[in-house]
Amino acid sequence: MTPITFSPIYNNNPEPNSSYSSPAPTRPTSITMAPNPRRIPPCFPLLSAHLFLLLLLPRLSSASPPNYHDALRKSLLFFEGQRSGRLPPDQRLRWRKDSALHDGASAGVDLTGGYYDAGDNVKFGFPMAFTTTLLAWSVIDFGRIMGSELGNAIKAVKWGTDYLLKATAHDGIVYVQVGDPLSDHNCWERPEDMDTLRTAYKIDANHPGSDVAGETAAALAAASIVFRSRDPAYSRLLLSRAIKVFEFADRHRGAYSSRLRHAVCPFYCDVNGYQDELLWGAAWLHKASRRRVYREYIVRNEVVLRAGDTINEFGWDNKHAGINVLLSKEVLMGRSSDLRSFQMNADGFICSILPGISNQIQYSPGGLIFKSGSSNMQHVTSFSFLLLAYSNYLSHANHAVTCPHTTASPALLKRLAKRQVDYILGDNPLGMSYMVGYGRRYPERIHHRGSSLPSVHAHPAHIACKEGSRYYLSPNPNPNILVGAVVGGPNSTDAFPDSRPFFQESEPTTYINAPLVGLLAYFAAHS
């Protein structure tokens, strides 16, 4: 992709597999390095017993033990900072105001609401749907132990599903994005001020997008379980819409970035293919509807849709590990022997992530899961969520995972997941929390427009596109604290630049936080 000629360009590119080459960022005011960086080797597979133990031993730093409940509360508060549309009276993050109140008007539809995915002002449907699915899964598996935060978790799910219902309101059409990313990323504006193009992009029979439609169906189906007893009418609406959207995704197969490349790439290109989203959508419909037809679909299409591919990947673009863990629960409970291959794949994922067992997953010297690309924390939280979820399924079945040279017990998987969460909350070589507003030391210059610009209350006058540049380049901390935001995180040597231009490390995303909600709920209840 040829960079835009305007300067500066405020890049947002959380896609882990993108080949997009961004302009060199402005030199940060300071980069906090791990102690004695020259003595720390680069990121590598953990093949030694010493580093294996590093992930299982108690705390590395002298900081106080994590307050998981406080972190849970703040992780949910973050989603209120990402809201688009007209904000409700109970909005708690008060520096945010109404924004994008005419989204969809150019296409004659109402597309207000939903979430901004990261530090920009575009509403990308693919990661938003995945965020909603993972929030719903967090409530399904861990809602009963969320205590006073359950209501806020349900509100976070519903803010996503209310928008997805609007995006799928017309049969045979799914609106998958609002906002032109190139013009948006060429500006540094508050969402309340933005005057860039708010183009509404859609998929239909002639321009298919089985990936984003399959993920949307999964989100609606998963959320229908959340509301099944809480709001039966809303639950039925979500499920019926999920069925329609899945049928559309399956009937008109194709990747949405094939036709919408100019709008979605390099930001959220479908690199992995759409096949996994069809299986993912069917898996959630099977769980939500309890209809045999979806299990039969999964079994019939297991090979065709490449269920065994890349079993150690899970995120907004690749659902394979999530599919395997989700379907394994029924196998472990003795209900679906015809899905046993998915349990074998789930076991393979567990073995691939164990330190010292394979070289498929790498760890930093401080013990953080690390995958090349940007926004590494998305892998940390999504993998950790699967570790925890699968450990619970194994516990209920009195089962363990047999790997080369070791057996992975449910307790071991929980310790590995907890180690990752503790690293995020400050138990790391820098002693820094990577959740904004949590702990004594956390990122202060995050790559986020609304957080880094003066609030409307503090600066009522409009701040135009390029007028925000001085705030983007400022060495000062962000004036508005985006409480609960988890940033992309440190690099492979545990070093972290607290600087806006380093968006790979300093930008938060909704799909980093979504799986963390379930993790924090569990450890808050079992600390």
Automatic annotation (TrEMBL):
UniProt-listed GO biological process terms: cellulose catabolic process
Residue numbers spanned by region Disordered: 1-34
Active site: 447, 498, 507
Swiss-Prot/TrEMBL catalytic activity: Endohydrolysis of (1->4)-beta-D-glucosidic linkages in cellulose, lichenin and cereal beta-D-glucans
EC number: 3.2.1.4
Pfam families per UniProt: Glyco_hydro_9
Signal peptide annotation: none
Domain (Glycoside hydrolase family) ranges: 68-520
Compositional bias ranges of the Low complexity kind: 7-24
Entry similarity comment: Belongs to the glycosyl hydrolase 9 (cellulase E) family.
PANTHER family attached to this UniProt entry: ENDO-1,4-BETA-GLUCANASE
Name of the protein this chain belongs to: Endoglucanase
Organism listed in the record: Salvia splendens
